[in-house]
Amino acid sequence: AQTVTQSQPEMSVQEAETVTLSCTYDTSESNYYLFWYKQPPSRQMILVIRQEAYKQQNATENRFSVNFQKAAKSFSLKISDSQLGDTAMYFCAFSIQGAQKLVFGQGTRLTINP
Amino acid sequence: GAVVSQHPSWVICKSGTSVKIECRSLDFQATTMFWYRQFPKQSLMLMATSNEGSKATYEQGVEKDKFLINHASLTLSTLTVTSAHPEDSSFYICSARLAAQNTQYFGPGTRLTVL
What we know:
The structure holds 2 protein chains of 2 kinds.
Chain A: E1 3-5, E2 10-14, E3 19-21, E4 24-26, E5 32-39, E6 46-52, E7 60-61, E8 64-69, E9 74-79, E10 88-96, E11 103-104, E12 108-113
Chain B: E1 4-7, E2 10-13, E3 19-25, E4 32-38, E5 44-51, E6 57-58, E7 67-73, E8 76-81, E9 90-98, E10 103-106, E11 110-114
Parallel strand pairs in B: 2-11
Antiparallel strand pairs in B: 1-3, 3-8, 4-5, 4-9, 5-6, 7-8, 9-10, 9-11
């Protein structure tokens, strides 16, 4: 069975700092996709970034980047120059190519302090 | 792009009544949509996978006769909570899968309160 583990239930940093959220996963598959979603207080789930497992290059979206370590089954999210609007619950998720379900981690509650 | 709407955003109903929630992909077609339930401070729990033109696939422990799903078009899936009871009160979220990206995009959610 596939599992996703987020070991940091809560994190808090000051505005403008850089923060890294951890995520590990377990699968025997070789082709899959990894995602980070954020859920702000509005509870709307928003896609932050996605990574195809076959790509060695780490995905980047503006201030958001990932460190994808396939052998270690690790997929961390780095937020640079953090902003107050980054305050949210962040979920790491995973899906196998060909399957359609997402497997979610338990989430990390990130608070950006002014 | 990849916008998903959900309606209503919140609903209050009496125990024993049925409630329908709509999920629409606004700018893409989705043969597959998903329905989740989220309890406070918890992750999303997949209830069922909605497939256009065919029966939904329910996760273990989800009562298909209670949570009716219809996916009649490539842009619309509906979840009907039948004979709702207070324990059905929750936050329900839908998503639509953009196949070209193998990515799910989520609706804004519906808060259901059953009195």
